[in-house]
Q: What sequence folds into this?
């Protein structure tokens, strides 16, 4: 029993001696010798990146020490120069990573899983210092090969409404749609000229915001912010839609068509080709001013309410008059019920369908 106890006691006494000896001598350093220079970027930096840069980088430089490049290392830290080029034995960096001088690098207990350097790694750092602690970190730019976003991938991650409440923008996948809220119609689909038609960003649109005046829309994607301008349109030229100085009092254009139907205060009804601005057809109801003009939902017919309270209709393509004096008298408003029927409002008789 006494023999076993004495052996156990001897073991306890021997352990501190071994640790003290390791602390005094530090970690083993391999003696390396070669003609070619140690390359910092490919040989030293990977060692530091794994075991040192978590605490000693440009953004988080513990003790004001940055080990990301030879230039940064040469600046030293709070305790002065860390490296003496050509003399590793007198360099503080070697004392810390050999763990002969505190604080040990890396700390024996750390949260990033950094390990003490191996004899070969220590020998490599020592050789690099003795060779002059030279080198540079080359910035390698890798070209991004973008793949098109699938046309079926259209999640909406962001929306924005203009300050005046007139427009709403939404990002659908890599596209941006702008809607006119009062009419609930699509106003614009934004396209980057450098990308495919209808595509606003290479990747998904993540954010949208209107400027205070509502004339600029900012959109954000992967590492990119784009500004879209909504400048007030200026007319390229002034066009007299109705000849003879007659004032235009009503106009309508069918969705998707390039033909406008206009009417004047002296009874003229005229179709205009918007591309050429040339009249297509013209008719006149003598002595009657136009009150309202409405195109049918399919754009094939036009109904016009005149000051005599009658509604007259035309074929929008040919200008043939479809009705003359057959409509009810005293109409004050008109609307198309469908492509064939018209609803008229009357001050005394209510609503009529014909």
A:
């Amino acid at each position: 029993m006494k023999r076993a106890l004495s052996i156990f006691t001897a073991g306890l006494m021997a352990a501190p001696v071994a640790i003290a000896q390791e602390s005094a001598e530090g970690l083993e350093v391999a003696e390396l010798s070669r003609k070619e220079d140690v390359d910092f970027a490919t040989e030293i930096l990977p060692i530091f990146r794994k075991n040192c840069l978590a605490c000693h980088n440009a953004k988080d430089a513990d003790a004001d020490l940055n080990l990301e490049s030879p230039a940064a290392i040469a600046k030293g830290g709070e305790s002065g120069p860390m490296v003496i080029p050509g003399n590793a034995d007198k360099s503080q960096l070697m004392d810390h990573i050999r763990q002969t001088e505190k604080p040990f690098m890396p700390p024996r207990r750390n949260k990033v899983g950094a390990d003490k350097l191996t004899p070969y790694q220590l020998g490599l750092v020592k050789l690099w210092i003795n060779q002059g602690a030279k080198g540079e970190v080359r910035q390698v730019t890798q070209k991004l090969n973008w793949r098109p976003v699938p046309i079926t991938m259209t999640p909406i991650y962001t929306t924005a409404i203009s300050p005046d409440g007139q427009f709403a923008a939404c990002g659908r996948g890599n596209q941006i749609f702008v809607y006119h809220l009062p009419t609930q119609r699509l106003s614009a689909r934004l396209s980057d000229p450098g990308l495919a038609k209808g595509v606003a960003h290479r990747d998904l649109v993540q954010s949208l915001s209107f400027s205070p005046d509502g004339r600029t829309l900012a959109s954000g994607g992967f590492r990119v912010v784009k500004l879209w301008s909504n400048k007030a349109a200026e007319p390229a030229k002034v066009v007299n839609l109705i000849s003879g100085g007659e004032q235009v009092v009503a106009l309508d254009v069918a969705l998707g068509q390039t033909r406008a139907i206009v009417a004047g205060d002296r009874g003229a009804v005229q179709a205009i080709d918007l591309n050429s601005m040339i009249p297509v057809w013209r008719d006149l109801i003598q002595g009657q001013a136009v009150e309202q003009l409405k195109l049918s939902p399919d754009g094939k017919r036009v109904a016009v309410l005149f000051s005599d309270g009658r509604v007259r209709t035309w074929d929008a393509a040919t200008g043939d008059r479809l009705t003359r004096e057959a409509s009810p008298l005293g109409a004050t408003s008109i609307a198309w019920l469908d492509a064939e029927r018209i609803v008229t409002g009357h001050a005394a008789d209510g609503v009529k369908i014909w």
